[in-house]
Amino acid sequence: MSEKNHRVSRRQFLNYTLTGVGGFMAAGMLMPMVRFAIDPVLKAGEDQDMVYVCEEADLTNEPQSFNYKVNQVDAWYESEEPRTAWIYKNEDGNIVALSPVCKHLGCTVNWASDPANPDKFFCPCHYGLYEKNGDNVPNTPPVAPLDVYPHEVREGSVYLGRATPKGEA
């Protein structure tokens, strides 16, 4: 048989075969590297464990700011992230733990820092107001209540979880 009767010449066949084998070898080497690079990003976020914040005996009827740290993992990087919570005991003696992050633009709210509203949380960025229980005051910039922290009391110590929107905790 002559080469004219074949659709693919020997040279083309060899070229196609070597290209295919080379492609499979390259893919075999690159896939583990790509998997290594993107695997941490694709992992589901872990729920935050409850973190110690303060002693229950330190709480009063007046909201107090408590600072604490949370271990945070971002892909390959682990760090301690500083956090803050406003915690107090309400009239029924139940613990209320609120996030200090304003729902309008993310500024930090303070308790009783506005002389015109001494019994409210005040956001100085755009004069947002929240009631003591975290509900937003109508006709002020915040459009939603402050987030709340799920909490536990273990042997007289207060532990907080990840902040969630009010009503979901």
Helix-strand layout with pairing:
Elements (H helix, E strand, L loop, with lengths): L9 H33 L8 E5 L8 E11 L2 E13 L5 E4 L11 E2 L9 E3 L4 E3 L20 E4 L2 E4 L9
Antiparallel strand pairs: 1-9, 2-3, 3-4, 5-6, 6-7, 8-9
Write up this protein.
By secondary structure, the protein is an alpha+beta fold. 20% of the residues lie in helices and 29% in strands. It is built from one helix and nine strands. The protein has one helix at 10-42; strands at 51-55, 64-74, 77-89, 95-98, 110-111, 121-123, 128-130, 151-154, 157-160. Strands 1-9-8 form a three-stranded antiparallel β-sheet, with no helix packed on it. The longest helix has 33 residues, at 10-42.
Kindly report the spatial arrangement of strands forming the biggest sheet: 1-9-8
Strand content: 25-35%
Report the major sheet.
3 strands, antiparallel
What shape does the CA trace take? Answer: elongated
- Which series of helices and strands comes N to C? HEEEEEEEEE
Terminal CA distance reads 81 Å
Helix segment tally: 1
Mean pLDDT: 87
How helical, in percent, are the residues?
A: 10-25%
Measured on Cα atoms, how large is the radius of gyration?
29 Å
Which oligomeric form is depicted?
A: single chain
Q: Pairing-aware structural class of the strands and helices?
A: alpha+beta
Runs in which pLDDT lies below 50 for 5 or more consecutive residues are none
**How many beta-strand elements?**
9
